[in-house]
Amino acid sequence: MARKKQFKAESKRLLDLMINSIYTHKEIFLRELISNASDAIDKLYYKSLSENLSDIDQNAFKIHLEIDKENRTLSISDNGLGMNKEELEENLGTIAKSGSFAFKQELEEKDEKEDAVDIIGQFGVGFYSAFMVANRVDVVSKKYGEETAYIWSSDASDGYTIEETSKDDCGTTITLYLKDNTDDENYDEYLAQYEIERLIKKYSDYIRYPIEMWVEEQKRIEPEDGEEQKPEDVKYETVKELKTLNSMIPLWKRSKNEITKEEYNDFYKSKFNDFTDPQKTIHFSVEGNVSFTSLLFIPGKAPMNYYSQDYKKGLQLYSRGVFIMDNADELIPEHFRFVKGLVDSQDLNLNISREMLQHDRQLKVIANRIEKKIKSELLLMLKNDREEYEKFWNTFGLQIKFGVYNGFGANKELLQDLLLFYSSKEQKLITLDEYVARMEEGQENIYFMSGEKIEKIDQMPAVQKVKDKGYEILYLTDNVDEFVLQILGTFKEKNFKNISQGDLDLDSEEEKKELEKKAEENKDMLEGLKTALGEKVKEVKISTRLVDDPVCLSSDEGMSFEMEKVLSAMPEGNPYGMKASRILEINPNHPIFEALQKVYAEDKDAVKEYADLLFDQALLIEGFPIDNPAEFSKKICEFMVRATK
Ligand SMILES: Nc1ncnc2c1ncn2[C@@H]1O[C@H](COP(=O)(O)OP(=O)(O)OP(=O)(O)O)[C@@H](O)[C@H]1O
């Protein structure tokens, strides 16, 4: 009879804690046991290399899973280094004692580089996660090079036993006696082949040794005569076969030039559930204080839920090929939230459950490198493949614009070179850099005009004058555009200038004098128009920005018409009633100006009707609703009738 040894008192408490508190998901027990098996094989592999062992066949290394439904057990076997009696006692009898960690340290002390092995274990607790799903665990182990095998057995509550047993080859078999099902928990699922397959794919797909299991699959029975069969005649048989459940080598660990575009695309589509090929794949490794490999994708299409709260940004995280978490949020900045992909690093500080990262410096370093890499790849695309970049821009440009605006412009320096706006001159999208590079001599500002559509903006009265001067204008059609330019403030020391706001200052000294004279001569009439319009306008003045059109509205610096419209369109409305100032500008070179002068000279009050009509016209041109459309229409008709009398 084996002598029963007791867990130390603290160990018992710790074990209880382990079983009930460390992990959120019971299913990770399999990940932990597979990782241990892989570590054990790594150790034997290392030993065989360093001691030149001829009886070790490296191609035979494997992990084997077995489901026994009758006895409700699941076992995990490896042909790794195994443990002798002392090691079983040390490693499995002492919680938080990691033989694997000690092994790794030993190697490091010997200055043997870590890449010889890729040991996963470090805390010395993973094994006990088995007790989350099992009420008894047997560990049969035989150490390489030793004669005797031992069985360690425990039901967690009442200590453990170690006895001699027999085992042919070196390695370890861990058998879990699954707990009885409860109302909340169905432990039988760990006896289901598909569930085990799913868990291996999810957590242990890139363990570098084959994980095998006998599986039952339905196979079609081919007719003997080889003839075509009708679907209803097709017969199936259940076939048992030994199947390797994991892919072993992660795509990102393979050399870049060996991977085809198709492989990348297929990987992306299956991993991130997309039907469309990614627009861009970025695969890179960084060596240094924090080493990592990253495989990133810019999707070809924005996901359906991209602009909703359901969308979760973040990258998948692997540590030494073991899946740690989905959507590691800190790894990707908000302005690149469309990027999907993963990071694999052995330098991460994981918390004990390996379900979370410690929020530490390493993580920041990785996130920084990723951000820079995405930016530089986008810039390269912009430079070398404009068409591709525009495709990207049409899908995710809005996100970049929000990125500039958000956080009071904290990321504007990083993102400003990625911006595109429509150019009046080129009639296509251009960068701010391109705009500035071809500014006319003496041109001080980067001109822009906002509106609903390019064609509409192009028709706006104020646009003509700037165009006539030979200056390029950026046409802004997204709500966020003006806010973006406002937060940028300047670009390459050039100011942004809204051509419907403030003084454009495009006239020569002579022209200015001429206009001042006209304003002085018509001072009374302009005041009369202002009085007629009352509070609706801040001022009525002679325009310096109109060429062919009779009137336009302009605003002071500060709030622009476009911003007012954006605020009013917000779900909560424009709560503070913030409005752009309205200045009615009249073209002194338009026949309407002469007509006004004439009417004013004959009957000062008659000018009021003209004032209302002109103001309503200006509102309509600017895309604002008018107060009284019926009245407007009536007046137009009256004028038309009058004109024919
Ligand atoms: N299949 C196995 N073959 C050989 N040794 C094993 C096996 N499983 C566990 N061990 C030994 O038991 C120790 C404790 O395992 P446990 O899973 O609790 O911790 P760990 O793997 O070292 O660290 P972590 O908590 O990070 O997983 C391991 O370090 C290893 O020395």
Automatic annotation (TrEMBL):
<dbReference type="GO" id="GO:0140662">
    <property type="term" value="F:ATP-dependent protein folding chaperone"/>
</dbReference>
<comment type="similarity">
    <text>Belongs to the heat shock protein 90 family.</text>
</comment>
<comment type="subunit">
    <text>Homodimer.</text>
</comment>
<dbReference type="GO" id="GO:0051082">
    <property type="term" value="F:unfolded protein binding"/>
</dbReference>
<dbReference type="InterPro" id="IPR037196">
    <property type="entry name" value="HSP90_C"/>
</dbReference>
<feature type="region of interest" description="A; substrate-binding">
    <location>
        <begin position="1"/>
        <end position="354"/>
    </location>
</feature>
<dbReference type="Pfam" id="PF13589">
    <property type="entry name" value="HATPase_c_3"/>
</dbReference>
<comment type="function">
    <text>Molecular chaperone. Has ATPase activity.</text>
</comment>
<dbReference type="InterPro" id="IPR036890">
    <property type="entry name" value="HATPase_C_sf"/>
</dbReference>
<feature type="binding site">
    <location>
        <position position="172"/>
    </location>
    <ligand>
        <name>ATP</name>
    </ligand>
</feature>
<dbReference type="InterPro" id="IPR020575">
    <property type="entry name" value="Hsp90_N"/>
</dbReference>
<feature type="binding site">
    <location>
        <begin position="122"/>
        <end position="127"/>
    </location>
    <ligand>
        <name>ATP</name>
    </ligand>
</feature>
<keyword id="KW-0346">Stress response</keyword>
<protein>
    <recommendedName>
        <fullName>Chaperone protein HtpG</fullName>
    </recommendedName>
</protein>
<keyword id="KW-0067">ATP-binding</keyword>
<feature type="binding site">
    <location>
        <position position="83"/>
    </location>
    <ligand>
        <name>ATP</name>
    </ligand>
</feature>
<feature type="binding site">
    <location>
        <position position="78"/>
    </location>
    <ligand>
        <name>ATP</name>
    </ligand>
</feature>
<dbReference type="GO" id="GO:0005524">
    <property type="term" value="F:ATP binding"/>
</dbReference>
<feature type="binding site">
    <location>
        <position position="32"/>
    </location>
    <ligand>
        <name>ATP</name>
    </ligand>
</feature>
<feature type="binding site">
    <location>
        <position position="36"/>
    </location>
    <ligand>
        <name>ATP</name>
    </ligand>
</feature>
<feature type="binding site">
    <location>
        <position position="97"/>
    </location>
    <ligand>
        <name>ATP</name>
    </ligand>
</feature>
<dbReference type="InterPro" id="IPR019805">
    <property type="entry name" value="Heat_shock_protein_90_CS"/>
</dbReference>
<feature type="region of interest" description="C">
    <location>
        <begin position="566"/>
        <end position="645"/>
    </location>
</feature>
<dbReference type="Pfam" id="PF00183">
    <property type="entry name" value="HSP90"/>
</dbReference>
<dbReference type="GO" id="GO:0016887">
    <property type="term" value="F:ATP hydrolysis activity"/>
</dbReference>
<dbReference type="InterPro" id="IPR001404">
    <property type="entry name" value="Hsp90_fam"/>
</dbReference>
<keyword id="KW-0963">Cytoplasm</keyword>
<feature type="binding site">
    <location>
        <position position="354"/>
    </location>
    <ligand>
        <name>ATP</name>
    </ligand>
</feature>
<feature type="binding site">
    <location>
        <position position="91"/>
    </location>
    <ligand>
        <name>ATP</name>
    </ligand>
</feature>
<keyword id="KW-0143">Chaperone</keyword>
<dbReference type="GO" id="GO:0005737">
    <property type="term" value="C:cytoplasm"/>
</dbReference>
<dbReference type="InterPro" id="IPR020568">
    <property type="entry name" value="Ribosomal_Su5_D2-typ_SF"/>
</dbReference>
<feature type="binding site">
    <location>
        <begin position="98"/>
        <end position="99"/>
    </location>
    <ligand>
        <name>ATP</name>
    </ligand>
</feature>
<keyword id="KW-0547">Nucleotide-binding</keyword>
